[in-house]
Specification:
heterodimer, A: mainly beta, Methylamine Dehydrogenase, Chain H, four-stranded antiparallel β-sheet, 2% helix, B: alpha+beta, Ubiquitin-like (UB roll), five-stranded mixed β-sheet, 21% helix, 24% strand, globular
């Protein structure tokens, strides 16, 4: 059982913004404090492949967007006025020239610790870890990872991994200690650092890798998304290629909480969402991982699943979603919660629809449709 | 358009006009002999950020970009340019 600190009951925000990163640009949904009325913005960066756009929680107005186009190389755009105007990074994430490696795209952005304004971390495809200390203007590789003597063994070849390239993602900074960090890789597994990234060690005990001869290797697993529980930074939730897991530190062995999912649905999926206040509550969005891995809603019946007891049990939540013929795919970054006391959860599909609940998953409503393929959802 | 001995006209594709605002620019190269990499360095000096969108960190032209010099494909940054050469940057056929 997780030790639970006093839940934060934030005052009801007057509005919520949902940043929608897509294969063809960035959109924003703005909802009022009731979360009943929504307005969809015009696109920003139309035609750009936007892998991730994130609002800085430390100032509420700085946005970073990781983008490239079909032709042009990867860059980071930065806004200091909540998305009204943007400026490109002076030196976006790039490997050293002598490494022989090339950043295809920046996949993941994580704001740094609350005590370090201006610090952000970026994870790239192929797997690389980068840091900025000036709010995203200049980025530097973290040699403790990028040049780690075991990095190549951890990651495998640059062409291994997901269909559009192997990725470093789920960069997590411990709110109690800016030097304590986690990162995950597809493929490669989950890793931990206690010295701000100078050194890393694998943290994959108990996590299956069905695609290897040894199903429990030290590293090489395929975590899809890892989230830290709110109000309990000793708890991590993981949606992996091979199931749903929970880890309670200082333990080092993950528990497959996906074993408690209905067998007819399974525990394969891409995103993982932690409740904004309750460390025992989390959501997943199961995908079909049978035979050729369709990665669509099992049986064409989309649903989120919520646990309120740290994964001991799961409840199907699909009220409002299509009952049949809903062959959705929700990518690993495309599901997020807001900060309301009664959490709202939002997800985007590869078919360009945004869905939301404002009652912790009891009922769902479509907020937008006809958008391009959705890569990431973030709230602010 | 008349260009100087160490000046080169560079045709800019639509994908990069957010940097230049115009479809062609002229850059001056002081290196002797002038090389394609020098043209991109001069472009970068005038339009910060533009080079990395076309040339990766190892110095190679990105896969879906094409560069012509004097009407011929040229992907070698060390290639020597001759006076009057026009550099054309093109977004290659790709996408969807």
């Amino acid at each position: 059982m997780a030790s639970r600190s006093s839940p934060i009951r934030a005052a009801a925000p007057s509005r919520v913004r949902v940043l929608i990163s897509t294969r063809k640009g960035l959109w924003t949904l703005v909802g009022d404090g009731t979360r009943r009325t929504w307005k969809l913005s015009s696109p920003t960066f139309l035609g750009h492949v936007v892998h991730h756009a994130v609002v800085d929680p430390r100032d509420g107005k700085t946005w970073l967007a990781a983008a490239r186009t079909g032709h042009l190389g990867p860059t980071i755009f930065r806004s200091q006025d909540s998305g009204r105007t943007w400026k490109e990074a002076a030196s976006p994430p790039a490997f050293t020239a002598d490494s022989g490696r090339v950043v295809d795209h920046t996949f993941w952005l994580t704001p740094g610790h609350a005590s370090q304004p201006g610090v952000w971390y970026a994870g790239t495809s192929p797997q690389g870890l980068f840091r900025t200390e000036d709010g995203g203007v200049t980025w530097h590789g973290i040699a403790g990872f990028n040049a780690h003597p075991d990095r190549k063994a951890w990651c495998g070849g640059d062409q291994d991994g997901t269909p559009d390239g192997p990725k470093l993602h789920s960069i997590i900074v411990d709110p109690r200690d800016p030097a304590h960090m986690y990162l995950s890789m597809s493929g490669g597994g989950t890793f931990e650092s206690h010295d701000a990234g100078s050194d890393w060690h694998p943290l994959n005990e108990g996590v299956r890798a069905d695609f290897y001869p040894d199903p429990y290797p030290v590293y090489g697993q395929d975590p899809h998304c890892v989230r830290m529980a709110s109000n309990n930074p000793d708890r991590l939730y993981m949606q992996n290629h091979c199931g749903i897991y929970r880890l309670d530190r200082p333990g080092t062995r993950w528990t497959r909480i996906g074993d408690n999912m209905p067998k007819s649905v399974g525990d394969i999926g891409l995103p993982m969402v932690a409740h904004p206040h309750d460390p025992d509550t989390a959501w997943v969005f199961p995908m079909d991982g049978t035979d050729v891995w369709p990665r669509t809603s099992p049986g064409g019946k989309p649903a989120a699943y919520r646990t309120r007891d740290g994964g001991k049990s799961w409840k199907r939540q699909s009220e409002g979603m299509p009952r049949t013929q809903g062959w959705w795919t929700v990518k690993r970054q495309a599901m997020a919660a807001d900060g309301f006391a009664t959490a709202g959860v939002y997800f985007g599909t590869t078919s360009g629809e945004v869905w939301a609940t404002r009652d912790e998953g009891r009922t769902w409503k479509r907020l937008a449709q006809h958008l391009p393929e959705i890569y990431a959802i973030e709230t602010a | 358009m008349s260009v100087g001995q160490d000046s080169f006209r560079v045709a800019i594709p639509s994908q990069l006009r957010s940097y230049t605002k115009v479809p062609a620019v002229t850059v001056t190269v002081v290196a002797t002999p002038p090389r394609l990499a020098d043209v991109f360095a001069a472009l970068e000096a005038s339009y910060p950020g533009i080079r990395f969108r076309v040339i990766d960190e190892t110095g190679r032209v990105r896969p879906h970009m094409q560069v012509f010099v004097g009407g011929r494909v040229q992907r070698d940054p060390a290639a020597i340019l001759v006076p009057g050469d026009e550099v054309m940057i093109v977004g290659a056929l790709s996408g969807g």
